[in-house]
């Protein structure tokens, strides 16, 4: 009996050493989407399983026999991504909504992460991105529900002025 408890204790110690140390973030943080270097406010939401991202012009299509989705992050370029899965979101007082889920890279607190994002028009919400439990669990993130913006490190990003200038240059070249 003693030896089996020692084995269980040793296994628990080995598992805890393999997991990266937890990081505490605020209930709102800045995220930078890696494809665009666009900085967005994100709410870290323990009530949501999957992360969600504000996207418009969302169109599903098939490429080489696989399901893909085309979309645009406002102020960002148009993107095509393979579909990880689709989800049916039940909404109170409104019809259910099919959403495409894609894997995307983003930076938060100075570190790059990859997680699943469901794509939807979040234009009426305060935060264009929502980070759910799947991201928090996979990356060992803790949330301080009392304070926003606790990240100690920042991610590189493009300012709105730089985006506007790049867009203006793009239009002049056309």
Mean pLDDT: 86
Task: Provide the β-strand percentage band.
Answer: over 45%
Number of helices: 3
- What is the helix content? 10-25%
- Uncertain spans: 1-17
Termini gap: 77 Å
Name the strands of the widest sheet in spatial order.
2-3-11-4-10-9
The 3D shape can be described as globular
Number of extended strands: 12
What is the secondary structure topology, with strand pairs?
Layout: H1 2-18, E1 23-26, E2 28-33, E3 38-44, E4 51-54, E5 56-63, E6 66-72, E7 78-82, E8 85-91, E9 94-108, E10 111-120, E11 129-131, H2 133-138, E12 141-144, H3 160-173
Parallel strand pairs: 1-12, 3-11, 4-10
Antiparallel strand pairs: 2-3, 2-9, 4-11, 5-6, 6-7, 8-9, 9-10
Structure summary:
The chain is an alpha+beta fold and 174 residues long.
What does this structure look like?
By secondary structure, this protein is α+β, with helices and mostly antiparallel strands. It has three helices and twelve strands. The chain has helices spanning 2-18, 133-138, 160-173; strands at residues 23-26, 28-33, 38-44, 51-54, 56-63, 66-72, 78-82, 85-91, 94-108, 111-120, 129-131, 141-144. Strands 2-3-11-4-10-9 form a six-stranded mixed β-barrel. Strands 5-6-7 form a three-stranded antiparallel beta sheet, with no helix packed on it. It has a two-stranded parallel ribbon with strand order 1-12. Strand 8 and strand 9 (94-108) form a beta hairpin. It is globular and about 45 Å long. The termini are far apart.
Which properties best describe this structure?
alpha+beta; 6-stranded mixed beta barrel; 3 helices; 3-stranded antiparallel β-sheet; 174 residues; globular
């Amino acid at each position: 009996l003693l030896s089996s408890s020692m084995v269980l204790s040793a296994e628990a110690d080995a598992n805890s050493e393999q997991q990266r140390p937890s990081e505490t973030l605020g209930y709102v943080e800045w995220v930078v989407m890696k494809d665009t270097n666009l900085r967005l406010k994100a709410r870290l939401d323990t009530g949501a399983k999957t992360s969600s991202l504000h996207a418009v012009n969302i169109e599903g299509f098939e490429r080489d026999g696989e399901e893909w989705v085309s979309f645009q992050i406002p102020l960002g370029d148009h993107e095509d991504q393979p579909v990880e899965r689709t989800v049916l979101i039940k909404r109170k007082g409104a019809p259910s909504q099919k959403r495409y889920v894609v894997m995307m890279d983003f930076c938060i607190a100075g570190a790059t992460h990859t997680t699943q994002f469901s794509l939807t028009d979040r234009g009426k919400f305060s935060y264009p991105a929502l980070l759910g439990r799947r991201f928090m669990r996979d990356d060992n993130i803790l949330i301080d529900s009392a304070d926003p913006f606790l990240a100690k490190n920042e991610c590189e990003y493009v300012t709105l002025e730089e985006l506007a200038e790049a867009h203006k240059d793009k239009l002049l070249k056309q």
